[in-house]
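Q: what sequence does this backbone want?
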């Protein structure tokens, strides 16, 4: 059995699907995403936000990242070691832990290549 739900991040929509032998197991699978709608960047309020994913080289941890196209701020979803469910990182105040961009500007020719992979 499969069950789906729409995820809205800014101006983009994604469909998440949970799979299992019955409704309960399909809902449990879908619940591992632990991701919910975000209407805009938590730093600059731009609705131009997208999803990307990566794996760390050293420990092979899997991460999903919500990134703002305007200010390049980001929100990381970490993967739980126990059940491999993803969760939003929150700060000490319990708010989503949006981080400002801390890096060098990508050169124009490199930026186009990166956006072709990351932005849809």
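A:
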């Amino acid at each position: 059995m499969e069950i789906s739900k729409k995820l809205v991040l800014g101006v983009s929509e994604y469909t998440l699907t949970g799979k299992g032998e019955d409704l309960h197991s399909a809902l449990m699978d879908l619940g591992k995403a632990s991701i919910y709608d975000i209407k805009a960047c938590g730093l600059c309020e731009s609705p131009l936000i997208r999803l990307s994913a990566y794996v760390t080289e050293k420990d092979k941890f899997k991460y999903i990242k919500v990134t703002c196209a305007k200010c390049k701020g980001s929100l990381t979803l970490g993967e739980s070691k126990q059940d491999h469910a993803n969760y939003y990182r929150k700060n000490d105040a319990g708010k989503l832990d949006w981080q400002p961009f801390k890096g060098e500007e990508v050169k124009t020719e490199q930026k186009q290549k990166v956006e072709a992979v990351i932005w849809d």
